[in-house]
Q: What sequence folds into this?
């Protein structure tokens, strides 16, 4: 099993990481080495073994639906890179089509 | 006087403050002075909160002056890994993407410290987002091992381990996702515990791999570590994976170390190539000691533990790739670049995350991709089941399992920094307990003869049997202390 530089570039795009060419050159062989190593799990005979996603066995933990105090707008916005009219100010999400 | 206070255990300090022999403000000031004196070399802290700490200490003193009874951590300075959200103090996770971020809410664990009259003295350095075994992945430079400043203090909670080992705080908090408390504890010569998963709350702990992340304590003694374990633990409705059960009697167990009649299993898979001779010779010595103390020691095979490391490096990055999607430059933290939201996100994340975090996010994205999911993430989840079954079978034969905590003593700064697979091997022995969600600790058992660096003993117990760890560790600690005639840390020569 191996992963190509193009595939690593694709993973970077999916992961919203604007990597430079130098970073891709550096990371691609490392990821290839890691993936070859972790592929060892495929040697394990696991036919019919159920998967474990977490170890506590807890499921559907409910609480009463009661109003409780929460952050003020000032607190919620206190770490925001940009704020306008008591809202998070973000770059344009939709691009106008011409 | 000041330096004497930093040599005292947390248990002694809490008693002295409660009894009025010393003020919490004096204790805090002594530790702040020690930090000013040596932390320029150790670099255990990312943020020292002198004003906040002194204010908290004075509040403890005022409480005592009013005649109120003080909590179990009365005036004890505690260093906190920089991924616990703390109101009024920055929380960076060792990442540039959160540089300067001050959380608007408090983690449950740090809130419990404050309620117990503990004093948070500062936030400690760590591998970025807890990904690493050396603190070299911190966006703010590595911490150093108080035994030898050219060596790593382990990681990811390396700053917290170093802070306690260098007497900069009496106790510290870390998190353990694959060994991030036990491995640094081992290589810094202190005690560190990964409690049962769900035994300590994750509320307000910045997430790395949610099904594995476990907050836990560091201390210089077994009893101190148990004291913090007890204070920080217990059910929290704010964490849906928190276990609604009584905290195991860890302090009681730490006061009554005894292994007579206890069945102890050596994990046979954790030995051989790659294990440093001094780590194995100290381990063999500890086994002899346990037998001399009346334990019945046998060897137990856990055949799937060999696959724990690869399974972990699929499961943890998969969860991380999802958890770290929240760092997008929109609501908090760094924002970089211009153009569309998507472009800003990609530029922000590339600028804010270091190489290891990028590797893991992409590895997780790969393992979760359609077409690869069954072969990687799905298979790793099945291996996780098999590891849990290995533990269950082992714990039918023995009360606790033991192994080295990590295959080597502290390695050189830079030695593994750009060799991810070599770095990952540091967690070989600790990962199974994270995958199974059970309890484990590391306790010092001496120095490796070849280099004079600390070696630990790793003890693992079934879920919610955390007290067994302390019963074993307290017995081991007492036996070694009487042999050495002094605490192991007295031999640390790095400072």
A:
């Amino acid at each position: 099993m191996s992963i190509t530089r193009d595939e690593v570039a694709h993973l970077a795009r999916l992961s919203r990481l604007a990597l430079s060419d130098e970073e891709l050159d550096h990371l691609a062989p490392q990821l290839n080495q890691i993936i070859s190593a972790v592929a060892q799990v495929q040697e394990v005979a696991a036919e019919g073994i159920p998967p474990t996603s977490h170890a506590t066995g807890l499921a559907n933990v409910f609480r009463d639906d009661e109003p409780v105090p929460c952050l003020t707008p000032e607190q919620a916005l206190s770490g925001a890179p940009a704020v306008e009219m008591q809202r998070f100010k973000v770059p344009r999400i939709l691009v106008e089509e011409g | 006087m000041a330096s004497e206070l930093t040599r005292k255990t947390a248990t002694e300090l809490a008693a002295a403050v409660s009894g009025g022999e010393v003020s919490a403000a004096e204790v805090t000031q002594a530790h702040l002075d020690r930090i000013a004196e040596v932390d320029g070399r150790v670099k255990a802290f990312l943020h020292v909160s002198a004003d906040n700490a002194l204010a908290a200490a004075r509040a403890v003193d005022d409480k005592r002056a009013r005649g109120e009874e003080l909590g179990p951590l009365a005036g004890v300075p505690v260093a906190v890994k920089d991924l616990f959200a703390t109101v009024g103090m920055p929380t960076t996770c060792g990442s540039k993407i959160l540089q300067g971020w001050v959380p608007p809410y408090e983690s449950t664990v740090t809130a419990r410290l404050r309620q117990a009259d503990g004093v948070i003295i500062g936030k400690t350095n760590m591998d970025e987002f807890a990904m690493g075994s050396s603190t070299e992945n911190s966006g703010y430079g590595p911490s150093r091992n108080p035994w030898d400043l050219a060596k790593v203090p382990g990681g990811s909670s390396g700053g917290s381990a170093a802070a306690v080992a260098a007497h900069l705080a009496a106790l510290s908090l870390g998190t353990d996702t694959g060994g991030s408390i036990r491995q640094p504890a081992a290589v810094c010569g202190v005690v560190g515990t990964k409690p049962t998963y769900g035994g300590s709350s994750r509320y307000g702990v910045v997430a790395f791999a949610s099904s594995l992340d476990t907050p836990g304590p560091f201390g210089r003694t077994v009893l101190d570590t148990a004291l913090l374990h007890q204070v920080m633990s217990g059910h929290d409705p704010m964490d849906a994976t928190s276990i609604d059960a009584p905290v195991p009697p860890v302090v009681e167990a730490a006061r009554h170390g005894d292994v007579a009649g206890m069945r102890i299993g050596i994990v046979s898979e954790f030995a051989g190539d790659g294990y440093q001779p001094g780590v194995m010779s100290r381990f063999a010595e500890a086994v002899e000691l346990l037998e001399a103390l009346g334990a019945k020691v046998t060897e137990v095979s856990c055949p799937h533990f060999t696959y724990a490391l690869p399974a972990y490096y699929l499961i943890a990055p998969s969860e991380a790739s999802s958890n770290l999607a929240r760092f997008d430059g929109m609501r908090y933290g760094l924002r970089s670049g211009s153009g569309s939201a998507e472009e800003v996100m990609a530029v922000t994340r590339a600028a804010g995350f270091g190489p290891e975090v990028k590797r893991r996010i992409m590895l997780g994205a790969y393992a979760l991709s359609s077409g690869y999911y069954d072969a990687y993430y799905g298979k790793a989840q099945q291996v996780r089941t098999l590891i849990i079954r290995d533990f269950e079978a082992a714990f039918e034969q023995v009360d606790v399992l033991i192994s080295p905590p990590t295959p080597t003593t502290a390695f050189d700064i830079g030695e593994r920094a750009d060799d991810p697979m070599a770095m990952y091997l540091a967690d070989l022995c600790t990962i199974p307990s994270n995958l199974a969600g059970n309890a484990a600790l590391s306790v010092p058992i001496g120095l490796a003869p070849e280099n004079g660096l600390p070696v630990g003993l790793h003890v693992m117990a079934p879920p919610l049997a955390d007290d067994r760890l302390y019963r074993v560790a307290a017995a081991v600690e007492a036996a070694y202390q009487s042999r050495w005639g002094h605490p192991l840390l007295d031999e640390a020569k790095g400072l």
Notes: The first helix of chain B runs from residue 2 to 7. Chain B touches chain A through 71 residues (CB under 8 Å).
